Write a sequence for this structure.
């Protein structure tokens, strides 16, 4: 079963534009994490936001969390061709013994 | 500091053969995980470990076994490989309630 579901499944934008990806989940969480995966590579952690936080920033990344709606969004500002990758949200569900459940991802393509 | 390493990177097995995938981490993390990733999908947890000598089942444990004899190593075994186990396997490690660090993956094909 997949706790987090990303939307959209695919997104194509021009370099310099902003990219927004959304994640919805079903149960209470301890934290929600976003990861990036370049083609054929392992996942790289981007941001972790805890259930008592509403917004977090890291460089060009901004993550919001709305626990009442069970949703999160990842905003990448001023996108670059190097941001082309798949982006996954993962939830650490309450009572899950620290297991992460991943969504199926958003494939972002940034066109030069 | 190598982070998380996986051995081998690629492997082709015939149905019924066995093999072991090795994961090693040098970050002194308590938790380690094995995932599989199939085309167009996110990662699914196979087994995980919260400390040396402990293992637990994840979402898709059938057909796999694991061992964590040393804190830095986590082994994933396939006793009798099946075509349905063709996948990319990722190992990860973490501190409790913190982000996970992933290895580069092992691409396994079972014919």
């Amino acid at each position: 079963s997949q706790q987090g579901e990303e939307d959209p499944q695919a997104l194509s934008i021009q370099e310099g534009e902003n990219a927004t990806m959304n994640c919805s989940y079903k149960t209470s969480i301890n934290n929600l994490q976003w990861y990036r995966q370049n083609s054929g590579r392992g996942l790289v952690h981007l941001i972790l936001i805890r259930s008592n936080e509403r917004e977090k920033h890291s460089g060009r990344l901004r993550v919001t969390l709305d626990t009442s709606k069970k949703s999160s969004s990842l905003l990448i500002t001023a996108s670059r061709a190097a941001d082309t990758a798949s982006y996954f949200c993962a939830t650490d569900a309450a009572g899950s013994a620290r297991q992460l459940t991943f969504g199926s991802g958003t494939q972002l393509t940034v066109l030069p | 500091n190598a982070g998380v390493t996986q051995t081998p990177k690629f492997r082709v097995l015939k149905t019924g053969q066995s093999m072991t995938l090795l994961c090693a981490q040098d970050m002194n993390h308590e938790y380690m995980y094995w995932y599989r990733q199939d085309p167009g999908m996110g990662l699914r947890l196979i087994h995980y470990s919260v400390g040396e000598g402990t293992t637990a089942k994840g979402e898709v444990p059938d057909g796999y076994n694991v061992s964590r004899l040393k804190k830095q190593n986590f082994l994933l075994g396939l006793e009798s490989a099946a075509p349905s186990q063709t996948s990319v396997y990722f190992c990860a490690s973490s501190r409790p309630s913190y982000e996970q660090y992933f290895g580069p993956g092992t691409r396994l094909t079972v014919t």
Observations:
- Chain A touches chain B at residues 1-2, 4, 30-31, 33, 35, 40-45, 48, 88, 90, 92, 97-105 (CB under 8 Å).
- The longest strand of chain A covers residues 29-37.
- The two ends of chain A are 36 Å apart (CA to CA).
- The mean pLDDT of chain A is 92.
